[in-house]
Amino acid sequence: MWLLTLTAFAEKLLYVFSLQLTSLWKILIHLYSSFGTLLWSAGGKRSQHGKKRGEIREGTAREEDVSGHSVNPVSVNYHFTRQCNYKCGFCFHTAKTSFVLPLEKAKRGLLMLKEAGMEKINFSGGEPFLHDRGEFLGKLVKFCKKDLKLPSVSIVSNGSLIRERWFKDYGEYLDILAISCDSFDEQINALIGRGQGKKNHVENLWKLRRWCADYKVAFKINSVINRFNMEEDMNEQIQSLNPVRWKVFQCLLIEGENAGQEALREAEKFVISDEDFEKFLDRHKGISCLVPESNKKMKDSYLILDEYMRFLDCTRGRKDPSKSILDVGVEEAIKFSGFDEKMFFKRGGKYVWSKADLKLDW
Ligand code: SF4
């Protein structure tokens, strides 16, 4: 009897002890992860405030807080390079620097954006396939889809440097590829500056359309309507290319980029009136995937990050940079983005942007 009671008591003791051990273990794990988070954020803060001059340039953001409410960076355009192999006369994001962030820093910024609410990232330039022959871009695309699990990852490119190998390596991680094409007449493309020697921009467009279908990437076309293409009828070609979206922009002037003394381009001769833009839209009104963007709609309705991960504020007709999100965080930098969230929704900025939801007949 005594022996039985003793055994039962020992069992109870062991049970309670093991429970406590489990709880103790849980507490230890919790403490460890909290400590890790603390260390990580302290490290982040140190690098945010320890200004490494020359590496991340200081922004020239306006000092006043431009809006009281916080903006949600649902859809972000990251122009990680300004370098390009084309010379479009109206280009409004020109090669003013050759800077590109190191890969790990760019990834850190993208993680910060995701934590702040980003759902869609668009990589643009310059020409995004130029840097490191598209490998840098591919790694970011893969990181955003596989690690960050963003619903939508897209690219805007002139298409001239894309190889099939890239689709093989990274196509599965890309939702949408938008190719810039302003004309189906090669002479007009040459006048605009879209093209490189003997390479035919239009033939290349068809090749990319096929690869998008083969590798299951949604295909989109962007066109800038300007003085040289405003009379063109693109109905037939657009219908046969059958993009998921055809974005049609009105040529836009931005001081310091394509207008004014410090600009690398003089786009004044490309500019068209609102009436001419409307006429072009009217001629193509039968195309259901056409998404028009007048200057008014476009100017402030994009969240643009430059090569230093600074938001660019276009409200004053030029691109005023915030401080880098890597230095001050997303919440602080976005106050200086000049972003018109209402116009973003009004212009249909949020749409079905994940290829999983597009239900395409590839
Ligand atoms: S392809 Fe795009 S980035 Fe390059 S020059 Fe033309 S508009 Fe500018």
From TrEMBL:
Organism domain of life: Eukaryota
Cofactor section: [4Fe-4S] cluster
Biased amino acid composition, Basic and acidic residues: 53-64
Catalysed reaction, written as an equation: CTP + AH2 + S-adenosyl-L-methionine = 3'-deoxy-3',4'-didehydro-CTP + 5'-deoxyadenosine + L-methionine + A + H2O + H(+)
Region (Disordered): 43-64
Membrane-topology annotation of the record: Peripheral membrane protein
NCBIfam families named among the record's database cross-references: viperin (TIGR04278), viperin_w_prok (NF038283)
Name of this protein: S-adenosylmethionine-dependent nucleotide dehydratase RSAD2
Quaternary structure, from the entry: Homodimer. Interacts with IRAK1 and TRAF6. Interacts with FPPS. Interacts with HADHB. Interacts (via C-terminus) with VAPA/VAP33 (via C-terminus).
